[in-house]
Structure prediction request, 220 residues.
Amino acid sequence: MDPISHYETHVLPFFSKLRRILEGFRFDSVLPAAVSLSFLFVFAIAADTASNPLSPASENCDHTVPGDGKIQDALDAASADEIVCVQAGTYEEALTININGIHLRPENEQDEVILAGNYNYDTGITISYATDVSVDGVTIQGFRDHGILIQNSSGINVAGNLINDIGSGIFNSGVRIDNSSDIQIENNQINDVTGSGSAGVGIGSESLQITISNNEFESL
Prediction:
């Protein structure tokens, strides 16, 4: 293959994908140029292979939310290290998780669980002062500020979610991380996060050990 054909076939598509992926990230703190570039480059390569699978729901649900129930009621009733499973349906509410070891996911892998804010709430799911929490396989849509807010927490896994239609102001995020560590954001699809300064994933300056891999970002 001649050099021009190689450039058009391989080089240009690669940098086009790289630019689209990097648009999904925003950092509040300013990193040294070399560190920032290498940091984003590694995550961009990982993010480009997203397939957005749902992890299978556990067979041992400690709490099951019926389609006409409230997810927050089950979260409030849960104890540490319990699994909250949600039946298929649309739930108009905002959630807070502040108990260690809570795992939130659909009852069955094929169930479509939609957390719909309809722009009546600021944030879809707030994880605050908690450790070892996971949110897996939920559609989160129609919130004013953030799809998921992680603050003052550690050991958090956000995987296989669809976060869509977020933002009515500025500095909105699909996932926002503040003052937290050991956070994994993987296999999510984050779309349509609007507003000046908004991003697919927003990372505060006090957050460390953040892993972002195999995600897809569109219309940010």
The longest helix spans residues 3-22. The mean pLDDT is 82. The helical segments are 3-22, 33-47, 71-77.
